[in-house]
Request: fold
Amino acid sequence: MKILVCISNVPDTTTKITFTDNNTKFNSAGVQFIINPYDELALTKALELVEKHQGTVTVINVGLADTEPNIRKALAIGANDAIRINAQPTDAFFVASQIAEAVKSENYNLIFTGRESIDYNSGQVCGLLAEMLGLPSVNVINTLDIDNGVATMERDIDGGREVVKCNLPLVVSAQKELAEPRIPNMRGIMAARTKPLKVVEPASVANSTEVAVYELPQPKAGCKMIDAEKTEELISLLHNEAKVI
Amino acid sequence: MAILVFAENIDGIYKKSSFEAVSYAAAIASSTGDKVIAASLGTVEGRRLEELARYGADKIVNAADKKLDAFNPQAYASVLAQIAKQENATIVVLTNTYSGKSLAPRLAVKLNAGLVSGVITLPETSSGFKVKKTVFSGKAFADVEIKNQVKILALTANSYSPQELNKAAEMAEFSPSFSDADFASQSIEVKRVSGKIPLTEAELVVSGGRGMKGPENWAMLEELANVLGAATACSKPVSDMHWRPHSEHVGQTGITIKPNLYIACGISGAIQHLAGVSSSKVIVAINKDPEAPFFKAADYGIIGDVFDVVPKLVTAAKNLKSSQN
Reply:
């Protein structure tokens, strides 16, 4: 089985978000970048699948050279090889178009993305890529079993879960319960240094959306404290003042 | 020109977020002068279809094909693309729910459209076409410009209140054409939690953290939620320790919610958690630690032991509800 895992490079979850250039650019100074957590779960699941069914796992990233430490980390976790499309990712459409162009003749049996990236939270790449490649897609999956070329998955739906079956090839997006992340061991880290990392130049594609300006949430006016002995006051404030209950 | 809005139903009943989307589309139309076309897929009774006119549809396109009774992202995207083309839609509105997220990208490719997911405001059209969306899981917002001629907006639940506009809508039947590829994925079983308000759409949320000390103590939060008509949620450590299901985890790596009221019980308020809830209209923090960061992000706070405070809140909430009846 030939598996592709799309990974993106995102600010660590503890990052305090700030902007520069009149709030038009994300301020990456001093920010630690990580593999998007959902993409890392997808990678672990892909490795579990090839351990069971044989095959290879390739990771792909759209990014400039500064994403290579995280690509090497994916190789250290266990991916066989990696592709970096040498471009600054501008929006989900751009990223999906680049990946589709790079892999359209590679015939992967299974392509993973994360449920969403934790920076732009769009969750679009799975569906965009599948449509561009003419493949089915199942998003937000918590389980995945493959038997005779048929994938059975449980995906999140609004207010519940759905069991879905689909023939490979297929594009899926990973939700939290799909796998537990793996920490790379020393052998993995050593091996990662010599694993193939192919850099390809981007196709000529325009992005379809662009951030005009960023904004930080307005700070709260202040917290009204209520005496723990008079909790009924809270209910009355929520009813009469905030008018939410 | 037209604005197409996808009104999703579950077993023939429209979701509340669908009415939000229809009213949102009607609000855009009132400034652009476009017609609002609501697309309904699968079998829905006539009186239910009329609800779409109540919330602002000028025309209802009813694709009442039995094959569409169960949600299928590929088939739905394909049918919506057919309707969008027939109606010359230049804006498509749908909800940023799990189902919306699964079909919107496919629809964007089919219509060569620019898609923004997680929209929270009406578009700004004075220069270009811009909408605001949450980014960094709620830690910030971005005004995003869409460059394509056709635009798709996936609206976050609870971002726009449904408005009763009581229009008289034209009703049109639609017979979609399908290809085998549309049904490549098959739904085997749907397990919906019944009798509970889905967290993603809930207007009121009662949430617990590590301060609750164990899963056995959730009964009081569930009771408070029941009295208020709220959904329950939790912090990341709580779902990591399997006290509560992952589907209840709100925060940067869980789900981001935007309820009218978020009551945080025994949650300290780490930056990753606040990211997922900071768009809530009103936040209440209950914590015995006066230094808990949540108090800086809250509108109302109680410094006290949740095991004392929550049962008293239940009593006070019950009194309020019984005085209302």
